[in-house]
Write a structure and sequence with these properties.
The protein has 9 helices and 13 strands. By secondary structure, the protein is α/β, with parallel strands linked by helices. The chain folds into 3 domains: 63 residues, OB fold (Dihydrolipoamide Acetyltransferase, E2P), CATH 2.40.50; 160 residues, Rossmann fold (3-Layer(aba) Sandwich), CATH 3.40.50.300; 60 residues, Probable gtpase engc, domain 3 (Ribonucleotide Reductase Protein R1, domain 1), CATH 1.10.40. It has a 6-stranded mixed sheet, with helices on both faces. Strands 1-2-3-5-4 form a 5-stranded mixed barrel. A two-stranded antiparallel sheet has the order 6-7. A hairpin with a 4-residue loop joins strand 4 and strand 5. Bound molecules: guanosine-5'-triphosphate, magnesium ion and zinc ion. The site of magnesium ion has 5 residues, from helix 5. Magnesium ion binds next to helix 5.
């Protein structure tokens, strides 16, 4: 079991695997399929896999087994009963891309933060198209109020703002995934990091500044400097997975440690310090509402999981 490759993309049942710098097309073995109980047990982009029957002439191989994952970036699939979908595996940084137009949404950012933190992936915000924004400081302050101390990188493909800062993080063997809505410039940015046009890009719609969903599948690329980066299609919906809500709302958790009741729901109880902070304006109303909403989703999800067993 010493042929280890890394999944770079998936097209239905065919996986593209980087095996010692050579790209192979691989399928999973019959016994792999037999053992896999659900979606998440199949290979995902970024996974390391054990290969057999490596055929250099044909450029093919069989995936025998998955190497244990360090972590996964996952979301609950839209339209399913809370089934998880793995976006990418074995990740160091989640570059959460957003531009400063209609796309900017604090509540969505909080969801992305929670997805990363729960898996010990460092979230970093990339403010794309900084050339189009004349009040960057305002947006930065809003991001900081969602998560204090988070690293924010401004980028612009016009003058390559941000490339140097990104490259400083993208050291050899680091893996980073770029996520965010369609049309905010993920693929354009990755092309600049690669130093060539490897990915297709297209302009956004004039009417509503929405993207055209140009990237259609996740793809892992290796930078000349040796880091791995994953481009992803713009996400339409985002639901959280697992219990990482608390990690994103540390200020609220801290307040709640002084609530009168240990099982305080912070909605109506007397002696609730969260409600007190809300009343005094110390805690922002929007942030409180977002916390309640995500907490409720989390509770529903757990209820569902419980009901299934
Ligand atoms: N003004 C400006 N436009 C940019 C910048 N970066 C990208 N764009 C433009 O934004 C549009 C969308 O860029 P893409 O790279 O295709 O966006 P994407 O995030 O990959 O979109 P999907 O693949 O649909 O998820 C293209 O027309 C780019 O030229 C930038 O820094 N400044
Ligand atoms: Mg793209
Ligand atoms: Zn409380």
């Amino acid at each position: 079991m010493n042929h280890i490759g890394r999944i770079t993309s998936q097209h239905h049942t065919i996986y593209e695997v980087d095996y010692e710098g050579i790209m192979l097309e691989a399928k999973i073995s019959g016994s792999f399929r037999y053992r896999a109980k659900n979606n998440t047990e199949y290979p995902a982009v970024g996974d390391y896999v054990y290969l057999e029957q490596v055929n250099h002439e044909l450029g093919t191989a069989i995936i025998k087994e998955l190497k244990q994952r360090r972590n996964v970036l996952k979301r609950t699939e839209a339209g399913t009963r809370g089934e998880s979908q793995i976006i990418a595996a074995n990740i160091d940084y989640s570059f959460i891309c957003t531009s400063c137009n209609q796309d900017f949404n604090e509540r969505r950012l909080e969801r992305y933060f929670a997805m990363a933190i729960g898996e010990k992936i460092e979230p970093i915000v990339v403010l794309t198209k900084s050339d189009l924004c004349n009040n960057l400081e305002h947006f930065k302050a809003r991001i900081q109020s969602c998560m204090q101390g988070i690293t924010i990188i401004e980028s612009s493909s016009f003058d390559k703002t941000g490339i140097k800062q990104l490259k400083e993080l993208l050291k050899e063997n680091i893996t980073a995934v770029f996520t965010g809505s369609s049309g905010i410039g993920k693929s354009t940015l990755i092309n600049q990091l690669m130093g060539e046009e490897v990915l297709a890009t297209s302009d956004i719609r004039k009417e509503d500044a929405k993207g055209r969903h140009t990237t259609t599948y996740r793809q892992l690329l290796k930078l000349p400097e040796g880091a791995y980066i994953i481009d992803t299609p713009g996400m339409r919906e985002l639901a959280l997975d697992d219990s990482s809500v608390d990690d994103t709302f540390l200020d609220i958790i801290e307040l709640s440690s002084n609530c009168k009741f240990g099982n305080c729901s912070h909605t109506k109880e007397p002696g609730c310090k969260v409600l007190l902070a809300l009343k005094s304006g110390m805690l922002e109303d929007k942030r409180y509402k977002s916390y309640c909403k995500l907490k409720k989703e989390e509770t529903n999800r757990k209820g569902r999981k419980f009901a299934r067993h």
